[in-house]
Amino acid sequence: MARCTFLGLGVMGYPMAGHLAGAGHDVVVWNRTAAKMEQWAAEHGGVSAPSVEAAVADADFVFACLGDDPDVRSVAEKAIPAMKPGAVLVDHTTASAELARELDQAARDAGIGFLDAPVSGGQAGAENGQLTIMCGGEADTFARAEPVMDAYAKASSLIGPAGAGQLCKMVNQICIAGIVQGLSEGLHFAKRSGLDPALVIGAISKGAAQSWQMENRWQTMVKDEFDFGFAIDWMRKDLRITLEEARRNGARLPVAALVDQFYADVQAMGGNRWDTSSLIARLERDL
After folding, report:
1. Alpha-carbon distance 11 to 201, whole Å?
2. What is the pLDDT of residue 286?
């Protein structure tokens, strides 16, 4: 079993750290809000630390799941110098590829390993230990970290060098944006046509239109229920990072850019914390 540290106990990090403890690893946690890490330690029998530096000092693996580039950078600047030689830093935050490359170089200079390892599966995936992890970094570092990440993953893949994990996550978000908008429009059209959405989904979900979003969200979408995980605020953060990268690499993302603006419309409706399936609310409430 490994000595692990988890930095950041939000809706994703809290259960991910719990799975590490449940798998038998020795886990130390740190969170900006002390009450959250104390609650975690009481629930899972782990140890909370008073600072980032104290949390990472003896760890073989340091996992982080934070908010955005500035959050990751500020924590990593404290963690990397305090980590022991040969340890591995795994950043599960969805952040920029540019930051991943920056952290990879800082880790190399400090004699430690690094993986950028954003996840897909949302809060439910974290709670159920069924996340998909997209990694960028060295093959030997991935080989060391993968068995530990298995505590909360259903699949982990090494995509390429540092930054590749983040780029892969951007592809993931591009695809999701288009799928959710298409499903929203399809359900909206069915309702306006007087069709029973249940019968429609029963028919088309067995064919080429099938998707995870369709199988898991159509019922709540037609009920106007949007409290099921990944919030619009976070999706717009991810799309911002993606569109910035597209401007750098020359990729054309007209649908992703348009859906980002649709999400801005939902935010203006007060839906900042609604989940990403709430795109249908914009169609329904524009009537």
Report:
1. 30
2. 60
What is the per-residue pLDDT for 228? Answer: 84
Chain centroid to CA 198: how far?
30
Three state DSSP letters for 162-204: CCHHHHHHHHHHHHHHHHHHHHHHHHHHHHHCCCCHHHHHHHH
Question: 164-192 and 232-249 are packed helices; what angle lies between their axes, rounded to 10 degrees?
Answer: 120
Beta bridge partners of 115: 90, 137
Asked whether the beta carbons of 61 and 82 are under 8 A apart, the reply is: no
- Residues acting as catalytic residues: 169
| Ranges of the chain with pLDDT below 70 | 286-287
Cα dist. 247→158, 244, 273 in Å? 25, 5, 28
Q: Which domains does the chain have, with CATH numbers?
A: 3-161 (3.40.50.720), 167-285 (1.10.1040.10)
Residue 229: what pLDDT? 75
Q: What is the pLDDT of residue 143?
A: 98
Q: Could you tell me which residues come within 8 angstroms of residue 29 by beta carbon, excluding any fewer than 6 positions away?
A: 5, 6, 7, 9, 17, 37, 40, 41, 46, 47, 48, 49, 55
pLDDT in tens, 160-201: 999 999 999 999 999 999 999 999 999 999 999 999 999 999
Counting runs of H as helices and runs of E as strands, what totals does the chain give?
Answer: 13, 9
User: What is the helix (H) or strand (E) element at residue 115, kind and residue range?
Assistant: strand 113-116
